Amino acid sequence: MFGEIKTIYQEYPKTFWILMTATFIDRIGGALLFPFFALYITDHFGVGMTEVGILFGLYAAGSIIGGIVGGIITDKYGRKFMLLFGLIASASFSLLMGFIDNLNVFYSLAIFWGLVGDSGGPAQRAMVTDLLVEEKRVEGFGVIKIIGNLAISIGPAIGSFLATRSFLLLFIADAITSLITAIIVFITIPETKPEIKIENPNHSIWQTFIGYKDVLKDRIFMVFMAITALVTLVYMQMNGTLSVFLRDNHSFSTEKIGWLLSMNAGMVVLFQFWITRKVKNFSPMIITAIGTLLYGIGFGMYGFIKSDIMMFIAMIIITIGEMIRAPFTLSIVSDIASEDNRGRYMAVFSFSWTFPTLFGLLVAGTLMDNYNQNLVWYGGGLFCIIGVLFYVLLNKTFENRIILSKVEKNALEIAIE
């Protein structure tokens, strides 16, 4: 087993593993803070869940702007600078928010926290793309998925230990992990932005911003992003409305809910890399469609099933779908984007998460409060079926796009030589 692990390790550049280690440390900070964020807000400010929803909406709005700006700077000035800025700025705002006692000020800071907190995201994803050859990118993004779930498995336990002593310790710990990550990146990771062989030295930051026009005009990418956002709207119910639904409709205890979600994270940690290797050579769009179909089956089941064992079986189906599709979505974006606009493509693709965050849980919560709660799961299954159909329809166009892109790249290299 250790020999196999060593072989896998040697298949990737050392810089990639350093970046993954730094990413894990940073994800631990988020995983120990955010599960207790709602508890902190309601307890510290004496407000209800409406205010919590507003706060997360403001954070998501800031993230949209931060992602746009981060994508520009990533493509113009490099990945490392933007990643370092995002980490240090996020640490500063996290620490500051731990000392705020005024809710309105807290709201304002949440916008800026979202702005700086997500500004380094496009840089990190572009850096992974830069470091790995095309054949290894799907597996590389699968490693990120494992790291995120490993952090989710560990972080809340650390967070609960700190929260019982002081909520302020959560903000301090999050800031410390971000600063440790920044130090690792600064000392050990070089700039990975590819040299553009033909580039106008007078190309301004405004012209880089205008480059978003090309991203938005990319119909294949925009349709892919929109459908992914629709599917993400379904997926995010797992960490939002599902626990409330199971508690109120099926008398699921908090302990059972914890086991259900822990099973999801544990399966990803144990099996993500193995599954990614098994399916990496198949068509990315078709694999994404298959994963989405499993989402639809799993989430849709919650509208029909009654027994506890079936609740866990539905989660197993969802988790298999997650392991199949998650690495491919980012890999598809990296295949579509060219070397000089990877940051901007990754920034726009992050909207497939931030837009559902803005209103997804609010819409689902409204349905659950005022209508048949099973509508959330019926609708989730329907949305996933729509996603499957669009992914299949995009497959041929996407494959032709990749072939053409490789031909153009080779032709440009020959012309330059």
Automatic annotation (TrEMBL):
InterPro entries: MFS, MFS_dom, MFS_trans_sf, MFS_Transporters, Tet-R_TetA/multi-R_MdtG-like. It holds the Pfam family MFS_1. PROSITE patterns: MFS (PS50850). Residues 15-399 form the Major facilitator superfamily (MFS) profile domain. One of its GO terms (cellular component) is plasma membrane. SUPFAM superfamilies: MFS general substrate transporter (SSF103473). It is found in: Cell membrane. Signal peptide: none annotated. It is a multi-pass membrane protein. Keywords: Cell membrane, Membrane, Transmembrane, Transmembrane helix, Transport. The keyword Cell membrane applies. The keyword Transcription does not apply. The chain crosses the membrane at residues 16-41, 53-74, 81-100, 106-123, 143-162, 168-189, 220-237, 257-275, 282-305, 311-333, 345-363, 375-394. It comes from the Archaea. One of its GO terms (molecular function) is transmembrane transporter activity. This is MDR family MFS transporter.
